[in-house]
Amino acid sequence: MTMQPLNCDSCGLAVTVEKFSDAHTSIQWLADATACPFAAARGHVLAGDHSCPELRRSIDVAVRENTLSESRIELPTGAAIPRMARGAGC
């Protein structure tokens, strides 16, 4: 899956998003992140736990309404994981 376009339902700012799980969401700002009213009110650029709650809500709604799909990652298992393969040293 790739980044998907999304606009914040609150302020309309455009971002691209890739949603992997409830705990893992990648967001790319298409404009300066300080254009976000939440960031402007706090006086700094958003990152990590300081992300805009309105944008997070917009992402969650888009996932619930199936307008934003979650990416699925197939993780290797067993011998397919190089560090777990026989003869592989640490």
TrEMBL record:
<protein>
    <recommendedName>
        <fullName>Ferredoxin</fullName>
    </recommendedName>
</protein>
